[in-house]
Amino acid sequence: MSVLLVVSDTGPIHYLTLLGRIEVLSHFFGEILVPSAVLRELNHHSTPQPIRELMLNRPAWMKEVDCPRTNSKFDRFGIGEREALTVALLHPGAVLLCDDGAARAAAASEQIAVSGTVGILRDAALSNLVDIREEIERLRTQTNFRGTDKFFESICTETERLIRERSQLSAEGC
Fold first, then answer.
1. What pLDDT shows up at residue 174?
2. Measured between alpha carbons, how far is residue 20 from residues 10, 12, 36, 40, 90 in Å?
3. Are 65 and 36 contacting, i.e. CB atoms less than 8 angstroms apart?
4. What are the beta bridge partners of residue 63?
5. Contact call for residues 112 and 96 (beta carbons, < 8 A)
6. pTM over 0.90
7. Ramachandran region of residue 125, left (φ > 0), alpha (ψ -120 to 50) or beta?
8. Rg for the chain (alpha carbons), in Å?
9. Cα–Cα distance between 129 and 174 in angstroms, integer?
């Protein structure tokens, strides 16, 4: 059985910690590789206290990985994105956790699978770990996560539709 390799940029760890939902990462992934630059960003003095506290007691499943040289393809990004993209590129089949739109596009152009904070919350809702509308509302109002009303509503509507369909299939005995 192959193990899914996951590399995280700063965003998903940051936002899931602020929401009090960082544990959903360990629910879905046994281990997450976190580049050193990402850990430095998460430890920055301007980072919200809950995130710095998480870094002081970093979970065992959050593994630091050094990235001494980044791929020049990613020079236009900040150091955290550069290292996360490079580490993911060096591990074919890896999934990158990232919220930055341009970095996600760069990953897609390199055939790197990408998910982010909203995708993780959607998966958590589909696994009955969270209520998607509550978490999206908290993401919108308690953090500086950016997205359009249309985007957030489409995620909620689609997730609720999938949950209803799954429930109907279970009720029908399939």
1. 53
2. 16, 12, 23, 21, 31
3. yes
4. 33
5. yes
6. yes
7. alpha
8. 17
9. 22
H/E stretch holding 63 reads strand 62-65
Is residue 143 pLDDT above 60, yes or no?
yes
d(CA 60, CA 124): 21
**What residues contact residue 106 under an 8 Å CB cut-off, 6+ apart?**
73, 74, 77, 85
Coil vs helix vs strand at 7: strand
Task: Give the residue among 136, 100, 131, 102 at the shortest CA–CA distance from 118.
Answer: 136
| pLDDT tens, residue by residue, 63-91 | 999 998 998 999 999 999 999 999 999 99
User: Which residues are paired to 174 by β-bridges?
Assistant: none
Each residue's pLDDT tens digit, 22-58: 999 999 998 999 999 999 999 999 999 999 999 999 9
**Which letter does DSSP use for residue 113 in this model?**
E
DSSP 130: S
As a whole number of angstroms, the distance between CA 81 and CA 127 comes to 29
Q: Provide the token pair at 82.
A: 């550069």
Alpha helices (H) along 6-114 = 10-18, 23-28, 36-42, 49-56, 79-90, 101-109
